[in-house]
Amino acid sequence: MKIILALTVYSVVSMTALTSYAQTSNDAAVQACQSTGLIALKQRAPEITDLVLDMETLAVSAADTKVEDVAVKTVIMGDAYIARGGQTGKPDRFVCLIGDKGKVLLTFFTAQ
User: 70 and 39 in contact (C-beta within 8 Å)?
Assistant: First the structure.
């Protein structure tokens, strides 16, 4: 279900994205996605110790779209390094959807 939702949202957002802007590690949207992503990953695999978003690959796009009746205001996509026991491997692709009031709706990771 999450994969279908992610693919649907990706398709809709890529057609309706309004703007992209440069991001920094102290960007509130990026921080929200990083922290909620790490929490979600740790729930599934406790050996995960950190999540590092590659700022050079991140695209932060303002959006004005919906998935069913849920508003999507920001989409963040890029590379993320998942640390297990202090070691990181190849980057995973990372997608994060943010709704009204900065609420993180979805974090999604997939191996490249």
Answer: no
Question: What is the distance between the alpha carbons of residues 62 and 75, in angstroms, rounded to a whole number?
Answer: 7
d(CA 100, CA 111): 29
Run of H or E residues at 104: strand 104-111
How far from 2 is each of 6, 88, 108, CA to CA, in Å? 6, 25, 8
Can you give the pTM of this predicted structure? 0.75
Are residues 83 and 50 in contact, defined by beta-carbon separation less than 8 angstroms? yes
pLDDT score at 54: 95
**From CA 48, how far away is CA 86, in angstroms rounded?**
8
Give pLDDT, residue 107: 94
Neighbours of 102 (CB within 10 A): 12
Per the listing, tokens 């963040």 go with 76
